[in-house]
């Protein structure tokens, strides 16, 4: 039995896909939509990025990849994929994990399903936008202190189209 003896944390982090109606050029472009307490942080983080345009052909793939790297609440059938795979193939879970080809097939199918779910979420997010929007990606976690925990959990992007990706 292994026992963890070092520091254990219950921290979390999240990524945010955020669409602003214009490119962020000044602090005023942020303060229109983000509470003043957080606007300088968001402005600084946005200025370090090249925003994605709604019209870009790679934006859907980039957003789907970002979403698939987090916890997806809509992935109910993904979470129990092992059981479904075993039932479909007529094998037990022990047989699945004793056979590398079945495991690799199951993991590949599961990851493709996960990406499909993430892609559908990204498509639905993009449907809310128009060609004028600029899309930014942000990442904040409570492991960086109370201020960043407020950004992560405080719904500060509620005034603009946004999607939170839990990375717990």
Write the layout of secondary structure elements.
Layout: E1 13-20, H1 27-31, H2 36-47, E2 52-53, H3 59-68, H4 76-79, H5 81-89, H6 93-98, H7 100-127, E3 134-141, H8 146-153, E4 162-166
Antiparallel strand pairs: 1-3, 1-4, 2-3
Helix pairs in contact: 3-7
Summarize the structure.
This protein is an alpha+beta fold and 168 residues long.
Query: Helix content range of the residues, please?
Result: 40-55%
Largest sheet, spatial ordering of strands = 2-3-1-4
Largest sheet: 4 strands, antiparallel
What is the mean predicted local confidence, pLDDT? 87
Instruction: Give the count of structural domains.
Output: 2
Ranges where pLDDT stays below 50 over 5 or more residues in a row are 1-8
- Contiguous helical run count: 8
- End-to-end distance: 25 Å
Computed over alpha carbons, the radius of gyration is 20 Å
Proportion in β-strands: 5-15%
- Helix/strand structural class: alpha+beta
Spatial shape = elongated
Compressed to H and E, one letter per element, the order equals EHHEHHHHHEHE
Number of strands: 4
């Amino acid at each position: 039995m292994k026992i963890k003896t070092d520091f254990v944390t219950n921290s979390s982090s999240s990524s945010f896909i955020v669409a602003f109606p214009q490119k962020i050029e000044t602090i005023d472009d942020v303060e229109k939509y983000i509470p003043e307490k957080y606007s300088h942080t968001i402005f600084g983080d946005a200025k370090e990025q090249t925003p994605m345009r709604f019209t870009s052909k790679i934006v859907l793939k980039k957003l789907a990849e970002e979403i698939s790297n987090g916890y997806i609440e809509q992935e109910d059938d993904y979470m129990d994929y092992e059981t479904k795979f075993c039932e479909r193939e007529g094998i037990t879970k022990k047989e699945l994990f004793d056979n590398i080809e079945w495991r690799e097939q199951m993991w590949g199918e599961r990851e493709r399903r996960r990406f499909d779910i993430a892609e559908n979420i990204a498509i639905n997010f993009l449907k809310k936008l128009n060609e004028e929007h600029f899309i930014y990606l942000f990442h904040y976690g409570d492991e960086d202190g109370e201020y960043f925990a407020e950004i992560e959990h405080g719904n500060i992007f509620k005034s603009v189209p946004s999607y939170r990706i839990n990375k717990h």
